[in-house]
Write a structure and sequence with these properties.
The protein is α+β, with helices and mostly antiparallel strands. It contains 7 helices and 12 strands. The protein folds into 2 domains: 51 residues; 189 residues, Glutaredoxin, CATH 3.40.30.10.
Length: 265
Amino acid sequence: MSEGTPGDKPSGAALANGQPQAHRRELYRIAIIVTVATVLVAAVVVSSVYLILRRDQRSATGQDLRASGIPASVSTGLANLMSLSPVPGARAPGFTLTDQQGRTMPLSSFRGKVVVLEFMDPHCTDICPLVSDEFIDAYHDLGTAAGRVVFAAVNVNQYHAAVRDMAQYSGEHDLSTIPSWHFFTGSGPRLQSVWQAYGIEVQAPNPDADIVHTSAVYFIDPQGREKFLASPMVDHTKKNQAYLPASQITSWGRGIALIARQLAR
């Protein structure tokens, strides 16, 4: 028998002359490894089944994960869709900027009303137009409560910070149909101070680069306190065009209106 021929099996003589005790030890070691691996796999399976059962039990009893403090009118599914979370209720950072109609005003001028505040790029073709649609839906969903809610945005594009840029974007995306709409802008340093105060990260290396920024919606109560924070979402088509199903835009609009109406009471 040639030594090293693939597929050859050692004969009984070969085993007798090849230290059978060492061979038995090797077989014993392999058996232990197989046994331990089997036990571990079984434990993982049992644990997974347990977690699935617990998850199903929570769903059946309405105990899905939900941040405390979210208005009862907002379902858990809608809260998760919006990544909605309560915030401590600290005073919203103040600022004085100029809106799309050239009116310079402080945030405090809206005291007594709910403020839904977003951060937008007037040259954005990605998530900002989707949020704009959600704002318009929310305004219509508010009905008679709309007069107690202000919709506002702060510019995140310091290279396109003229009032006319805010006005053009507002007109193109029908935000001007919201009577209480304000798209604020100002000098670069002033805008940057507002971004920093609200935790908004902005990456704009040059005027021709795409503006990458944090997308966040703050809900500020009539006393000027931050109450809720939501994180808008966006998906993209195969051609890399920003997209969300109409049902999600509608749901977002309804969620914004529900929270704003709750705070306006």
